[in-house]
Each structure stands twice: as C-alpha cells, then as structure tokens.
Amino acid sequence: MVSTAARRLADAADTHRRIIWALLMRELATRYGRDNLGFLWVIAEPMIFAGAVSVLWSVIRAPYEHGIRVVPFIITGYLPLILLRQTVGFSVGVVRVNQALLYHRQITPLHLFVARFSIEALGISLAYIVIVLGLNLLGLMSLPKNLLLLYGGWFLLAWMSFGIALITGALGQIFEFVERFVQVITYVLIPVSGAFYMAAWLPPKFRAGVLTIPFIHCFEMMRAGFFGEFIPAYYNPLYPAAWASGLTLAGLLLVQFVRGRVEVE
Known about the structure:
By secondary structure, the chain is mainly alpha-helical. It has one domain (about 10-265). It has helices at about 1-30, 40-60, 70-90, 95, 110-135, 145-175, 180-190, 205-210, 215-225, 240-265; strands at about 65, 70. Helix 3 (about 70-90) runs antiparallel to helix 7 (about 180-190) and helix 5 packs antiparallel against helix 6.
C-alpha cells in the first residue's frame, strides 16, 4: 500500500515536472523565438542592466563606498533587485495571456506562474554567477566569503518574490488596474529594498524601522555572505522566512480562486 501511494506521488510529481518544462519551453519560444539565442537572452538581459548601472555608478561615485568597492557593491545589490522586480512584474497577466492553455485539464494557473517564475529566477541566478566570475577574473571583484549565507539570502528573496508574484498575478487576473499598480510598487522597491545601502549606514533610530522591511534582511544576508566580516550586517533569517511563508500561502489561495473564475468563463 505504501509503495502504491509512493508510486502515485512520484507519477504526479513527474507529470507536474513535464507540464512545467513544456510551459517553460513554450514561454521561451514565445518571448524570444526559436531562431535566436533563446534562453541566453534571459541571462544576457540582467547582465546588461547590471553592467550599465555598475559603469554609471563607477563614473559618478568614488571608487569606494563606506570602505566597499563600488562595483561589487552595486552587483550584489542590483541583481537581487532585478530578481525581485522582474519575477513580480512578469507575473501580472500571465493567466490572461495563457488562458487558452487552461482548457487542458492537467494545466493549472499555478503551473503558469511556476514556469514564468522559473525562467526569470534561473536566468538572473545564472547571470549573477557569470558576472561574479567574469569580474573576478578581471580583478574587479572577489569571490563570496560565505556561500551558505549568500545562497540563503538569495533563496529567501526568491521565495518572497514568488509569493508576491502569486498574489499580484492572481489579483491582476481579477482587477485589470493591478498591472499599473504593480509597476509603481516595483519602482518604489528601488530605494527601500536595501539594494543601494546597508542598514549599518543608517542612524540607529532609523535602522530599527528599516529592518521591519523583510527584503532588507535578504540583502544584508547576501552582502554579509559576499563580503564576510569586513562589513557589519543586520539580519534575522526567520523574519523574511515568515513573510515568505505567509505571502506564498496567500498567493496559493488567490490562485485557486482565479482557477475557478477561469473555468467558469
């Protein structure tokens, strides 16, 4: 009996994997076409954005910011910011533009969200690795000091981004104005996310308030993992994990509601 249940669970997992993989390939072909670089553009786009911002900051700012080299500081902040903004921004409208696929009973709105999120998250993650290794070879950036802490911060930020993407994507299917609202929110995230500053740079009376923003803890973790004990960092992994759990649960409930609306229509 146990083996039968395990077999059914494995078959279900394999079915979901194949559905998400097919949707992922379809998304890439639809967005970039079949006759060009395809998935490489998913990696190249964030590299271009991060490179342009790094060059701009290196021109207008001093070589060091609070004792940290500007280029590594911008790379370790801007790429996670791209992860947050793009995974959330591209989630809006994902059900609407792929609604015809939901006539296949095995495909659900959650599959659509997971496929699109996977494209963005994987592409930006690979771009991060390529940029760090490239700048390290050029002598412009050292390798991370604590990979576990860096990966932990990146995972928590991606988890929160997924939860927010589910919520905004589901609400975007219900209310059309949400798409414009999300664009505003993603711009607001630029100054408050922690991408371009650290909590240690703030006066203590402001630091406590800033640390109520869950994203800050993820950026602080990643920077601590990258630069090591050279910089003071303030973070509590349990805080963003709690936020990510709540956001994901709320998002899953909203996605189920959207599924019912799509099936009725």
